[in-house]
Amino acid sequence: MIWVRLDHLGIKPETSLYFQGIKVRKTKPLAGFDVACKWKRNYQGRTVDEAWFILTNLGDLPQAIAAYKQRMGIE
């Protein structure tokens, strides 16, 4: 098993990544998550300093990002 910290992935602006079957932990590992990563250089006219990391079970990057955009539009 390889452990990777999210801040060590080397994601740069305009990058999108999707990882399947990830174990996520703060203290005790939990399995079965996917992680969608996206970093837009600008969002709604503002410069963005970091990427989004979204835990999901939707199966692919476009679905995860679309669901997150819809949710954030509601909140």
Q: Would you mind describing this structure in some detail?
A:
- The strands form 2 sheets. The protein has a 3-stranded antiparallel β-sheet.
- It is of the alpha+beta class.
- The mean pLDDT is 81.
- The protein contains 1 helix and 5 strands, in the order E-E-E-E-E-H.
- The N and C termini lie far apart (37 Å).
- It has one helix spanning 61-74; strands at 15-24, 30-39, 42-43, 46-47, 52-56.
- The protein has one domain (11-74).
Features:
single chain, 75 residues, alpha+beta, three-stranded antiparallel sheet, two-stranded antiparallel ribbon, 5 strands, 19% helix
Order of helices and strands: EEEEEH
Helix content: 10-25%
Q: Overall 3D geometry?
A: globular
What's the assembly state of these chains? single chain
The fraction of residues assigned to DSSP E strands is: 35-45%
Can you give the mean pLDDT?
81
For the terminal residues, how far apart are their CA atoms?
Answer: 37 Å
How many strands appear in the DSSP assignment? 5
Q: Structural class, please?
A: alpha+beta
Uncertain runs? none
In DSSP terms (H or I, runs of 4 or more residues), the helix count works out at 1
Q: What's the structural domain tally?
A: 1
Q: Biggest sheet: strands, sense, closure?
A: 3 strands, antiparallel
Radius of gyration: 13 Å
Strand order of the largest sheet: 1-2-5
